[in-house]
Design brief:
The chain is of the alpha/beta class. The chain is built from 18 helices and 26 strands. α3 crosses α4, α4 crosses α5 and α7 runs antiparallel to α14.
Length: about 600
């Protein structure tokens, strides 16, 4: 991890590589480097940021072919010697993923005389590639890479150069994203289309176990058996402007403000309040199959897992389906009890989350039908799942998810209503009420955004605190989890989210007068219960910040600060509360001068275990 880029064409490679790496900074990284062919392979790398890398690259470095990398440490500390690219004589390699058998390969290659200069698993690829090109005559770069990947266990997206073949750039992919950009007399390779979107919107997404070559005017792709593949190009719909700050201080703030649009785009053309229906033509499930469903398993990680918890409540209430929510990284190593009459829903913003992909493959082996909820067209999950429900949120650059989280919630609402109507669990009138409420959300979110000064004042008041608690009941419990996650991600304040009824089972021991407690207290059938929980923490001298409805005239009697949201349908209030907590986290991090878009130690897309 975390981002690879490659360029071959008629232009100077260094400016394009650096520009592309900067476009991938949002993914998170701790070191960076490039290799450019300039009569020979010249490599420059450093622990630090792209701006640090620019200081070590000679200004007169020329060359029309190169590869680059931003690294997020997995094997070896974030030091210059562990940064990519990694070299072996006349070969240079960049790699995303994890090579699980690297120690075995390292011992073998060390015995053959190869000297290892880093602690990384990637250096094994460089030496193995060099060995395979030279052990039995002189193989070309493509053949050497084909032999190399056969020996690798784990995940990889690889780009490689050879000094003796400067007219080509080789690539390979398994379980780690790789996309090719097609230009005029130039071609690009990257982990993400954002890297080269300034130059082209025409792309080919490379599939697992594919390998190939880029030349300035051509692309060749082969399968594991060496058979040439014919692939059509796809056109990316959004442009680079959508991935730029547009005057906001941070991408995160911009993306919070984009939520009225991203939500509108996600449900556009799918909702009918007149008929009380949600039309999801992209679902490849017959009504008879939906009626036979016995259970739903939601698989996700991080923020997507929090969305899944809310989805559990929705599917059980609206569709009458028992629902389990599984952490993808644990699911694949458990012994799930699944059968063909169960539905797997995988939620992944990037569509490349390694654990979620592996979990979907595992559930498919049991005959379960699967639906992916993702934001990235053409991502790996879209080829693994039986059906895909896209969140039309556009590119999200900030590492902490905001607009993609609320878009995931909208997708879950629509899916639950759709299943519930087909299964006869909710009536047309009940569906109409929810659909009308969903259509009102963009305008209501705009009202929340208009109150950001009040939220900023609250954040400033408590920015010096070391600990925060977030509590909620029923649908507000996952909101509490997500609020705590956002705060800890970008402000580095220790924060915990709890089901409010669990406070008395241990967490109350941690409540002090220096511990702000955020209570999500929107109106609903658990409102009186959350008031009781608020009184519990107030009795321990805690300061309570409540998120409450505009028409709630009682809440101020029990809390210290109230952050208001427009009154809405009980099931939809979590969307509005989530926006409040996103802003609270943002302004807290701003007050603490934190790196908001690139929080320490975190990556946007977790493409390795």
């Amino acid at each position: 991890m975390c981002g690879i880029v490659g360029y071959i064409g008629s232009e100077q490679a260094v400016p394009i590589l650096l520009e592309s790496l900067k476009m991938l900074e949002y993914r998170g990284y701790d070191s960076a480097g490039v290799t450019v062919f300039n009569g020979s392979l010249e490599t420059y790398k450093i622990a630090g940021r792209i701006k640090d890398l620019e200081t070590v690259i000679p200004q007169n470095l020329t060359g029309n072919t190169g590869i680059g990398h931003t690294r997020w440490a997995t094997h070896g500390k974030p030091e210059t010697r562990n940064a990519h690219p990694h070299l072996s004589s006349n070969v240079s390699v960049v790699h995303n993923g994890i090579i699980e058998n690297y120690m075995e390969l390292k011992e073998r290659l060390s015995g053959l005389g190869y000297e290892f200069l880093s602690d990384t698993d990637t250096e094994v690829i460089a030496h193995l590639l060099h060995f395979n090109m030279n052990c039995d005559g002189n193989k070309c770069l493509l053949d050497g890479l084909a032999e190399t990947v056969k020996e690798l266990e784990g995940s990889y997206a690889i780009a490689a150069l050879c000094a003796e073949e400067p007219e080509i750039l080789a690539f390979a992919r398994k379980d780690s994203p790789l996309v090719i950009g097609i230009g005029e007399g130039s071609n690009y390779a990257a982990s993400d289309v954002t890297a080269f979107l300034r130059h082209t919107k025409e792309v080919i997404f490379i599939n697992d176990n594919e390998i190939g070559l880029l030349r300035p005017g051509s692309i060749e792709i082969f399968d594991q058996g060496g058979n040439r593949l014919s692939r059509e190009t796809e056109t990316i719909e959004w442009d680079l402007e959508a991935a730029e700050k547009a005057g906001y201080e941070h991408f995160m703030l911009k993306e919070i403000h984009e939520q009225p649009t991203s939500i509108q785009n996600t449900f556009a053309g799918k909702l009918s309040e007149l008929e009380g229906t949600v039309t999801l033509d992209e679902l490849h499930l017959e009504p008879a199959e939906i009626k036979r469903l016995r259970r739903v398993t939601i698989i996700a990680c991080g923020t997507s897992w929090n969305a899944g918890i809310l989805g559990k409540y929705l599917f059980e209430k609206l569709a009458g389906l028992h629902t389990d929510v599984e952490t993808a990284s644990e699911f694949r190593y458990s012994n799930p009890v699944l059968c063909g009459e169960e539905l797997t829903i995988a939620i992944t913003q990037s569509g490349e989350t390694a654990d979620t992909l592996a979990a979907v493959r595992s559930s498919s082996s049991y005959g379960c039908r699967s639906i992916a909820i993702t934001n990235v067209v053409g991502s790996t999950i879209t080829r693994e799942a039986d059906s895909v429900l896209y969140t039309r949120a556009g590119p999200e650059i900030g590492v902490a998810a905001t607009k993609t989280f609320t878009a995931q919630l909208i997708a879950l609402y629509m899916l639950a209503i759709n299943l519930g109507r087909i299964r006869g669990i909710i009536s047309a009138n009940e569906a109409k009420d929810l659909i009308v409420g969903i259509k009102r959300l963009p305008g209501q979110i705009q009202k929340v955004l208009g109150r950001k000064d009040v939220i900023n004042d609250c954040a400033m008041q408590f920015a010096d605190k070391r600990d925060y608690f977030f509590i909620g009941r029923y649908l507000n419990y996952p909101v509490a989890l997500e609020g705590a996650l956002k705060l800890k991600e970008i402000s580095y304040i220790h924060a915990e989210g709890y089901a409010a009824g669990e406070l008395k089972h241990g967490p109350l021991a941690l409540i002090t007068e220096d511990t702000p407690v955020v209570a999500i207290a929107t109106k609903g059938h658990t409102y009186e219960k959350i008031l009781s929980n608020i009184k519990e923490v107030k009795a321990r001298n805690a300061t309570v910040i409540a998120v409450a409805d505009d028409d709630d005239t009682e809440i101020e009697k029990y809390v210290d600060v109230v952050l208001r949201v427009p009154s809405s349908h009980e099931l939809l209030a979590p969307v509005l509360s989530s926006v409040v907590l996103q802003l609270l986290s943002y302004y807290t991090a701003l007050a603490k001068y934190c790196s908001i878009d690139k929080p320490r130690n975190l990556a946007k897309s977790v493409t390795v275990e």
